[in-house]
Amino acid sequence: MTVRTRADLADLPNYVPGRSVPGAVKLASNEVPGGPLPSVIEAIASASTQVNRYPDSGASLLVDTLSRHLDVEADHLAIGCGSVSLCQQLVQATCQDGDEVVFPWRSFEAYPIIVQVVGARQVRVPLTESHRLNLAALAQAITPATRLVFLCNPNNPTGTPLGREEIEDFLDRVPEHVLVVLDEAYREFVTDPGIPDGIEVARRRFEAGRDNVAVLRTFSKAYGLAGLRVGYCYATPSVAQALRKVYLPFSVNAVAQAAAVASLEARDELLVRCAEISRERERVRDGLLDLGYEIPPSQANFVWLPLGEDTAAFTEHCLDHKIIVRGFPGEGVRVTIGDREENDLFLVAATSYLEH
Ligand code: PMP
């Protein structure tokens, strides 16, 4: 007898993480270039002396600290092992076999994998010609079987954002039984005041008695803790409670909780770093536009080069220059904004690509 794993996993793609090559500059995973602040390293060291004990499964200090920083009630918050875990918890909390999850495509690569693993049905809605989420088509794709819609704002990998009015209009059109998840993994890099803070949008809707919005944020990007895996969700108390029910016990470890608390306390300093990355994003985009590349406006810590069939050649050319970027075969290349020196190296590679 051989063990029988689920037949439908055979055609499920593996999640492909950004490559790491020793000695190369990695601009492939939307990480920030700076390491943890001294106060965060201290919190990590201090928490590490207690790891013979299980972590606080409710992450109460982290939840209280978040509640204070975001000015929201603690019972509206749920913590997860990275926001990718919360994506899964949201699907688990809303969908049973055959229920539908609608999401834009291309968008965050984990959405289709999670939906299939949970046993729900994927409904992918193509982006517009200008690489933006197609909200009209997303609304049309909703059926009585739809339980959840992911809106990634700004979208990974294109960086394109959604504005306040279009989000409000979409939320007004969505039936009340459908949970709309605003995935704001890159929120802290947004500089355009027309892009709303999803937590504000959700709070106003909750006050108006509408409960079908949830907002996802992460400590992996702006807070620089990708290696520690902490994310959070702001939702109604009943959705937050459902997320806690499907939470894998103890999955946010004690070191990660302590680092997240220390990072929140150092928030102002970290947001200064984000502002610098956002400035670099504009510089890199302008440089690429000057070279003749098409680059949609980005509000995240990466830019998108819709290179189509040239994607593989461009990715290889960057690797020859010891720069790892993220290619999506046949579609385009996503380049994370690094520090100034790293970005300059990338611009040199993008220049020589056109000459080769
Ligand atoms: N959402 C989006 C849109 C992302 O791009 C990512 C990370 N690539 C995540 C969620 C998950 O981030 P994490 O699990 O590190 O919090």
From TrEMBL:
Gene Ontology terms, MF aspect: transaminase activity
Annotated ranges, domain Aminotransferase class I/classII large: 25-346
Keywords: Aminotransferase, Pyridoxal phosphate, Transferase
N6-(pyridoxal phosphate)lysine modifications at: 221
Pfam families on file: Aminotran_1_2
UniProt EC number: 2.6.1.57
InterPro entries: Aminotrans_II_pyridoxalP_BS, Aminotransferase_I/II_large, ArAT, HisP_aminotrans, HistidinolP_aminotransfase, PyrdxlP-dep_Trfase, PyrdxlP-dep_Trfase_major, PyrdxlP-dep_Trfase_small
SUPFAM superfamilies to which the protein is assigned, alphabetical: PLP-dependent transferases
Gene3D superfamilies reported in the protein's UniProt record: Aspartate Aminotransferase, domain 1, Type I PLP-dependent aspartate aminotransferase-like (Major domain)
Cofactor: pyridoxal 5'-phosphate
Family statement: Belongs to the class-II pyridoxal-phosphate-dependent aminotransferase family.
Protein name: Aromatic amino acid aminotransferase
Source organism: Actinoalloteichus caeruleus DSM 43889
